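Sequence in, structure out.
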Amino acid sequence: MKNAFNSFDRLGNIAIAKFSPSTKLSDKKQFADKIMHDNPSIKTVLEKIRGFKGRLRKQKTSWIAGEKTKEVLYRENGCVFRFNTDSTYFSPRLSNERKEIAGMIKPGDIVLVMFAGVAPFPIVLEKNSKSKKVVSVEINREANKYAKLNVELNKVKNRVEIVQGDVRKFAWKIGSLRSHIPTRPPKRNFNVKEIRKLTINDKKRMELENIPSKYDVIVMPRPQLKYSFLEEAFALSKKGTRIFYYDFTPISEKEKIVEKIKMEAKKARKKIKILKVKSAGEIAPYKIRLRVDFKIL
């Protein structure tokens, strides 16, 4: 139990602890009581059963003590967020990343955030910069429900646009809508049935009418998936676009990520300039979340 008293993550009013399989329930409750005693603003303690996984980035927790809820009220960078610990993804460890990127947004920039979750990046960027518009794209429907709520809570409804859907389909539909001619659909990971669904109906066309097809800034806080989504980012970019790309890599293999970006740029016939390569946090021993900033020339 001695080590366990230091092993929990805090998300606003909720603490999430991880125990070894042999830990007794009575010890878990003792630990939970101590957390709440030492941190009066924590009202609930959950146990992490399974970490985030899959395209929707869901985790599994179980209630240990306190209020029986999994809904978080979390504050950062002058913003407030509500979300469910299990049905949506949120990383407080990216708080400084959100603030740093907000500081690099120029007045009038039109920004796209892929894999936006409950909209922490879009809202922090909008609230802490003079951007013209931020478009938030997320595939998880539950996350998008919270994103819409968070946009209301932070009073940025007129400047943050929430789009439900897969980033790949979004890129193809926007391209097709703007060109008014059939654009080639994505080659990867779609079967015939899914390709048919990419047809833009009148309702979807109306939803996308106010969505830009090219962006000044593209932020890519990717989940741990093999597919890079760089093809879609390049399709939505223009000369001068700055892209903030996140990936996961062993510390010794950072250069491979940079080379991957260069190869994808060459395939997309885009010239780029690498601006910065930095660690955005350790996720496991000797493995980091890497951020590569680059610009379209």
